[in-house]
Amino acid sequence: MLKINNLNKSFHSELGSEKKVFKGLNFQLNHGDFVSIIGSNGAGKSTLLNIIMGNITPDNGNLYVEDRDFTNLASYKRNTFISKVYQNPALGTAPSMTIFENLSMADNKGKRFNLTLGLNRKKKKNYKDTLTQLGLGLEKQLDTEVGLLSGGQRQCLALIMATLNRPKILLLDEHTAALDPKTSQLIMEKTKKIVEDHEIPTLMITHNLNDAIKYGNRLIMLHEGKIILDFAGEEKQNLTPEKLLKIFHTKNTSIKDDELFSL
Amino acid sequence: MLLGTIEQGLIFAIMALGLYISYKILDFPDLTVDGSFPMGASIAAILIIKGVNPILALGVAFAGGCLAGFITGYIHIKFKITNLLAGIIVMTGLYSINLRIMGRSNIPLFGVDNIFSDRPNLLIILFIVLLSKFSLDYLLKTKFGFSLRALGDNETLVVSLGIDEKKLKIIGLMLANGLVALSGGILAQYQGFSDIAMGTGTIVTGLASIIIGESVLRKGKMFNVTTIVIVGSILYRFIILGSLKVGFNASDIKLITAILTVGIMAFKSKNLKLTLKGRLGGVFQNAQN
Q1: Pair (B29, B106) in one structural domain
Q2: What is the CATH number of the domain that holds A257?
Q3: Binary contact (A180, B283; C-beta < 8 A)
Q4: Which residue in B200, B265, B204, B212 sits closest to B242, CA to CA?
Q5: Is the CB of A121 inside 8 Å of chain B's CB atoms?
Q6: Residues of chain B with C-beta less than 8 angstroms from the C-beta of A80
Q7: Which of B134, B148, B161, B170 is the best mutation test for A, with the most CBs of A within 10 A?
Q8: Can you tell me the distance from the alpha carbon of A94 to that of A103, in angstroms, rounded to the nearest whole number?
């Protein structure tokens, strides 16, 4: 469970002008929540993920995971309980190491990387089973270097690595945007299965309104650092991309950037 | 002559193993080695003439190298000095430090008890090289070794595993420079003197050894990376021996090494272009789908 309390963040340009991204944002990600976040460019989606990851320090406000304040925790320490899958498949895996080595490392996430043997042979069968379920043939390539895999295969592996140790929070940053539609679909289905099976609280940024509606139990729209829409349950299931855009426009008649969303 | 060349190759192989950690695994072109190599020699030499056990002297040399690597890593991370510059700064500083350690620019070790006294040179060297090789082989298979390899590959991933990437980088550089200094300490005892100028070009020598090894042997089930580096280091010594035989002066060796290194790299980059084209083609295809 993630709780964000009264978050404030401004950026200052070199010329001294100030851009306020968040003015007292409150948000709660409950247990079992799979939230899709939509919003136009500059709405603060990426900044929000960066603040949660510890790459950007907020000016004010607090972050809690299961009632523990982690606002000032170093980035690498947060990563013991937060996982993120990036848009770029290269960021989630080590290319010169094999699939087996990558999975063994991911399995040790948050634990000590000491002088015991790195390969987790006990769980080799588990890894094989997990990879077989993907249907990409990766289970036969355990000793292949990850750099030789396709972008889609690497992203699948990155997703599995990020969730292998059941993080308390999973962040997905347009993690299917760089893939072809078929692979993108496969990864979305796999994401849904993993998130639902293990009840990992998940935040997913997407520009694809169909995905945003189809997946997850809650949908929020960020605009200028504020949550302007928050749909859950049946209300969310009945949405369509057209309805969503219409609501967006009635709320913000001045904004005409629907071309930023892909339908 | 032949035996001497192999022995030298083996001694320098320890240095090349150190460089392999910084240059290849951590992706950090660490010029500190030009200072930590003579530092190891200086420490070993001064301690031995003061009557310290020569093996203990090597231990202290290793520790000295670790300290040099620590400083390079620390200023790189703490003050955000680029990796290349951090190495150059520490290397420059080490020149004075090495002179301070020795008290003069050259210490002869003839007639002083050292690790090679009354023992067959090759056996001693082989023992130390194999010990370093197998330790490093094991280390790279451990969880720590995995994290080190991942660090040069993808820093984001290392952070996402909950590892302090800054600390890890410093430890890697310490280990690398420790090995380089150890190699310097052994060489001083082997050749019977330590000299302030013996570190010049260490990084290029080590680099040449690594790429010669990589172009002769292919990484696989038969040869692992440490074997490749050691074979490369011995071959490099034979190339130097060959150039001296055909009439080059000893003073030409640095230039030969430099040209050789560029030559192999140029040859490799040509090959690389061909394979890269194939890969990029694949990426574009994926993007179009």
Answers
A1: yes
A2: 3.40.50.300
A3: no
A4: B212
A5: no
A6: 162
A7: B161
A8: 10
User: In total, how many domains does chain B have?
Assistant: 2
Provide the domain limits for residue A161: 83-167
Number of domains composing chain A:
2
pLDDT tens digit string along A216-241? 999 999 988 889 889 888 888 888 88
> Is the complex ipTM higher than 0.85?
yes
| Segment A161-172, tens digit of pLDDT | 999 999 999 999
Q: What is the pLDDT of residue A134?
A: 85
More confident site: A19 or B148: B148
Please check whether residues B101 and B196 belong to one and the same domain.
yes
The DSSP 8-state label assigned to residue B140 in this structure reads: H
d(CA A47, CA B60): 49
Q: Quick one: A126 and A73 in the same domain?
A: no
Cα separation values, B235 from A19, B176, B213, B231, Å: 61, 22, 8, 6
Partner-chain contact A162 B142, CB within 8 Å? no
> Inter-chain contact A96–B153, Cβ cutoff 8 Å?
yes
Residue B268 belongs to domain spanning: 255-289
Which chain B residues are within 8 Å of A119, Cβ to Cβ? 141
Cα–Cα distance, B237 to B179 (Å, whole number): 19
| Stretch (H or E) spanning A204 | strand A202-205
The reply to whether A143 touches chain B by the CB within 8 Å rule is no
Which comes out higher in pLDDT, residue A239 or B154? B154
Which of A 35-74 lie inside 8 A of B, CB atoms? 74
Cα separation, B35 vs B198, in Å, equals 9
C-alpha B151/C-alpha B167 separation (Å) is 11
User: Is A184 domain-assigned?
Assistant: no
pTM of the model: 0.89
Asked whether residue A202 is domain-assigned, the answer is no
Averaged pLDDT for residues B20-33: 96
